[in-house]
Amino acid sequence: MASSSAPKYNSNTLESSPGKRTLKDGTNWEQNEEIPRLPGESRVTDKDVIYMCPFNGPVKGRVYITNYRLYLRSVENDPVVILNVPLGVISRIEKMGGASSRGENSYGLDITCKDMRNLRFALKQEGHSRRDIFEVLTKYAFPQSHNLLFFAFANEEKFSENGWMVYNPMSEYRRQGLPNERWRVTFINEHYGLCDTYPSLLVVPYNATDDDLKKVAAFRSRNRIPVLSWIHPETQAVIMRCSQPLVGMSGKRNKDDERYLDVIREANGQISKLTIYDARPNVNAVANKATGGGYESEDAYPNAELFFLDIHNIHVMRESLKKLKDIVYPNVEESHWLSSLESTHWLEHIKLVLTGAIQVADKVSSGRSSVMVHCSDGWDRTAQLTSLAMLMLDSYYRTIEGFEVLVQKEWISFGHKFASRIGHGDKNHADADRSPIFLQFIDCVWQMSKQFPTAFEFNEQFLITILDHLYSCRFGTFLYNSEFLREKEKVTEKTLSLWSLINSEKSKYTNPFYTKELNRALYPVASMRHLELWVNYYIRWNPRIRQQQPNPVEQRYMELLALRDDYMRRLEELQITNNSKISNSSASSASPSQMMSQVQTHF
Amino acid sequence: EIHIKEPIEKEVNPRLLPGELLLCEASTVYKYIQEDGSSRGTYGKLVCTNFKIAFLDDDSASDDNEPQFKNKIVGENDITLQCVDQIYGVYDEKKKLLTGQLRKYPETLIIYCKDLRVFHFCLRYTKEEEVKRIVSGIVHHSQTPKLLKRLFLFSYASAAPNNTDGRNQTVMFDTLEDWRDELERTKGNVKYKAVTTNEGYRVSEKLPLYFVVPMCVSEESILKYEGRGIPIWCWSCHNGAALLKMSAFPKEQDDSTSQTHKAFLDGIYKTISKPPYELLKTDDLSSSLPSLQDIQTAYTRFKQLFLIDNSTDFWATDVKWFSLLESTNWLEIIRRVLKKAIEVAECLERQHTNVLLIEESATDLCCVISSLVQVMMDSHSRTKSGFQSLIQKEWVIGGHGFLDRCNHLHKSDKEEAPVFLLLLNCVWQLVQQYPPAFEFTETYLTVLSDSLYVPIFSTFFFNSQHQKDTNMSGESLKTQSGPFRFLTVWDWSVQFDPKAQAFLNNPLYAEKPKPDKSQRKTARFKHQRQLSLPLTPTKSSTKRGFFREETDHLIKNILGKRIGKFINSSDEPPNSFREFYDSWHSKPVDYHGLLLPRIDGPEIKVWAQRYLRWIPEAQLHGGGTIATAAKILDLMEEVQSLQVKMDEEHSQAISVGVHSVPLLRNSARLSSLFPFALLQRQSIKPALPTSTWKDLEDEDDLVKRDDEFVDPTGDIS
């Protein structure tokens, strides 16, 4: 588990029995049960290194590399230092120092990870020790660049649940009450002929024919036509998603597209205008005309009202995260923490995304108006907005399974380009396509769960686990850019789903405070007064900042729950024995007030 | 049945406390709040008494909606005169501060309160005469200098029947016994003694009647300089090391005087550094901590961020919120104070060193640090009665000048400084970092901070024990009663009924398991457990001999790189501090042992409950920490009712009626402002930022790019 790979720094709770002997050079480490291995994981190499821990200084240890992970165990047992890093999180491997370098620890490897940390190993300057390990790491960390398969295809884990069964588009639409007399399911994209980045099953207005759809596709960037994401059970207002219209410099119009939007508006019998949210800042939308894109003008779409949500592009987000890393890793900016945090703009972006999603949700819910959301291509900001708005409006998505469905539907099936944005197994670390869009979405979800601690069935660990496996390549869930490619690679047949892991061990990811509430819109407050940095994720590698685990409030609640169940059981027993006693009329036993001392009364 | 219809102008009368007098009033005042661009409000009567300013709603009949958490003394629309922070008048849409005499009377009166409420009273529909009277009355009674004896405290004490709760567990420290008990409790009685030297205040009017000094300090020395230069005991650590404070000699121009002072101090230091006393470390807080002026300036700026007029204001300040917060410096001051307290704790706990805090009067920052250190090191101070006793010991009897620091009498702005609030803010950081360690809640701290401005308790309305004693005898007033009997704030039943008091108690608090009498012998063992820290500094450094040289290399090699920043950071505290801090934080927390606050940037937070509680835009409907707290309370009630049922089953009694208390909370629907949510946002519409930041100054290049832009300079291979 990647999530448990924090440096185990002098912790009493962990494996630090002082008498334990560690391995000497050359021992067969495969027989050592302390080094974790997944079924299907195989050893590649191991080597003595010095891990340049930024928190505790240099640590002498042995590093083990498999086709899945890099594992380091310190020679010292007090404290024992462990690193457990799936190779998938590696973004970049650099050699540091050369043959002429002075000093023992200036020669080695510097590894940049996608999960907010860097690893640095010093090696001995002899033989080809560095070259070997560099080559092995590069090969297994970047399998795509070496014509190798992802570890997900070698993984032979077994789980009691099958995560691939979690999302079935048809049953999800049925849950929403679809199809109905106004909305139909179309199989026009069954073989991805209409749009190769959309799922095969789409929901569109009943009054639009497949022929209409084809015509509309010609006018939408990458053929990503407006399709239904969610329908409000009462107002019947819908959330539609799509890409930008291909307006271009000349201000092209398309009658089919214009008519199609009217059909959408009319589908819930709405007289008022259709609301279009363009996620981009106004200037960017205008600038897009130069490359053939643009937005819905008032002239062409008199029955639509357009708002820009001012969310920036993927490059801005990438830079923002980079700045955030600079102030939290390896050490937390001390003197001017707040202004440093502000200068990264990370939370400002979170605020804008949440604000946009609130507007979408509110329009559909209290405005009773159908909305259409797009950005440029409709697979980054659009996915953020639709999925967050759905999370606000539909309590089903706040359950563990519901959230899995949401991610599977709005992100995976609708072609968020996970492979490009994350750069799975790809050595090109500077690729401008990479961007933490999905991380930003999960951060928004975390902010919501922080503001409403009883509204979500899942806990923080659930979100962190999703992010860990976003990079790990242990599961097929986030691999490839589209459903079309995943089908081609037979991902569901050849790999496991992350949801298998999670659903097999649900209790680990369950929020004990969860209170089920149906049909309640949940609007977070998108104010800096409430937004905070997700310390348990972004600064988790720093032992100084580590939060108390388990959370004491949660722990206390669990204790009370256990106590209540215990009492209920005893009470039941008592009632049974008392009932029998009534017939036997015999005496009593020990007082239960002894147990009462465990609960304090503050009343 | 025919009822005679009441006159339309229904007479609403203010509820007055004993001794409270109505001074002036005005009708058809419109109290309103602005929300989402529109305003809503109610008409009513605005009154001013010798205790408070109150707004009486014309249709306040809807009493069935009693809030669960109600203050019996200060109502929702009451502002005690001492709670008024600033009063502004609005003239033609312009705000002007109102202080003394007024020539023109405003259309709207805005009252900013010290408990961070903001009231808008529109006077446009009020008779001119009444406007004049109420505005000048309010300004006069709340903003102009006042004699001590004119405080409502005295009127109330002479008029109210005295029924002080005798069962209060708080130690008041006004008797010799109390000090002796404290010495015994902390096992400080071997080396320290309680003295009666100040009886009749013959040493100093600033010192309490009784206090504790090292055994070896003579009465003579105490008397010599009115108690200056004398180490006064605060608390003893389990290992015998003690926390002391001392009032310093003022800087003398005259050389010979300062020479004598120095000689005197040297003598004192010499006696108390000898065995049996531990080594002594002195800390001059006036140079190692921010000045009172800095603290006052920081807080003034800080609180201003929360005194918000309308939602436009709220969102306008939201854009640069973090830098605004930082520019106040308030959180940084909290951080520095916490850091100082950790340093002191390290000396006491690990170095077995006595720590002597020095300050000019030893009644301001000394109180903050000594209280914090005790909260961190002595789990007794984390119980409600223990914390209250601590405030009595260090602050009330210790001689913190509440009257001057809160500027209750408006005598001098220069003396004003929120020193006690600083302590509460620091304690709150600990409470939110370690919820199970405290018997009280953040709500307790919030209402305690509010009580600073309620002049029916003597606790926060005197500068010293001497001042209180000399003003107790009602000689100057022609009252029938003899000496006044004041209420203490620690009698929470005066302000809250039992149901409301439940919110002051922390359901997460796990009481310290009381050792059996038979296990008394293990008491020493308990102390050892509390130590929980390696006494020898890093045994591993020697063990790692081989790597030590490597470390040096490492440091040399990476200096200038990012890692170097942390090793060579200039404002890094001394190593022993870091080591102590890191070592403690790397171990599981013992909630009844030593508690060290986390002080890294992200860990110091804004006390949201106190500062955001009246701001409707900041409200989370159904969210906030109260959502989980309410669930815990519900579950505890359920468990308790199960216990009752089980007892019944045991006694085989026939259960009569339902025992479960009706659940008062509907946890999912509480507002995050609960229990202070009196101002509810009316609309269920989500709060939307009205102004957002759009420009990214230095990233123009990136901003203009398209998502799928391919960087030609990128390393594509």
Automatic annotation (TrEMBL), chain A:
Taxonomy, superkingdom: Eukaryota
EC numbers: 3.1.3.95
UniProt region (Disordered), positions on chain: 1-40, 581-603
Gene Ontology molecular function: phosphatidylinositol-3,5-bisphosphate 3-phosphatase activity; phosphatidylinositol-3-phosphate phosphatase activity; phosphoprotein phosphatase activity
Subcellular compartments: Cell membrane; Cell projection, Filopodium; Cell projection, Ruffle; Cytoplasm, Myofibril, Sarcomere
Record-listed substrate binding positions: 313-314, 375-381
A Pfam entry, by short name: Myotub-related
UniProt entry tagged with the keyword Magnesium: no
Record CDD domains: PH-GRAM_MTM1 (cd13355), PTP-MTM1 (cd14591)
One cellular component (GO) term of this entry: plasma membrane
Tyrosine specific protein phosphatases domain mapped to chain residues: 344-406
Family: Belongs to the protein-tyrosine phosphatase family. Non-receptor class myotubularin subfamily.
Protein name (record): Myotubularin
Species: Pampusana beccarii (Western bronze ground-dove)
UniProtKB/TrEMBL annotation, chain B:
CDD domains: PTP-MTMR12 (cd14594)
GO process terms (BP): phosphatidylinositol dephosphorylation
CC terms in the record's Gene Ontology section: membrane; sarcomere; sarcoplasmic reticulum
Subcellular location: Cytoplasm, Myofibril, Sarcomere; Sarcoplasmic reticulum
KW Cytoplasm (keyword) present: yes
Keywords: Cytoplasm, Sarcoplasmic reticulum
InterPro entries on file: MTMR12-like_C, MTMR12_PTP, Myotubularin, Myotubularin-like_Pase_dom, PH-like_dom_sf, Prot-tyrosine_phosphatase-like
Family per similarity comment: Belongs to the protein-tyrosine phosphatase family. Non-receptor class myotubularin subfamily.
Name of the protein this chain belongs to: Myotubularin-related protein 12
Organism: Pampusana beccarii (Western bronze ground-dove)
Lineage: Eukaryota, Metazoa, Chordata, Craniata, Vertebrata
Gene (UniProt): Mtmr12
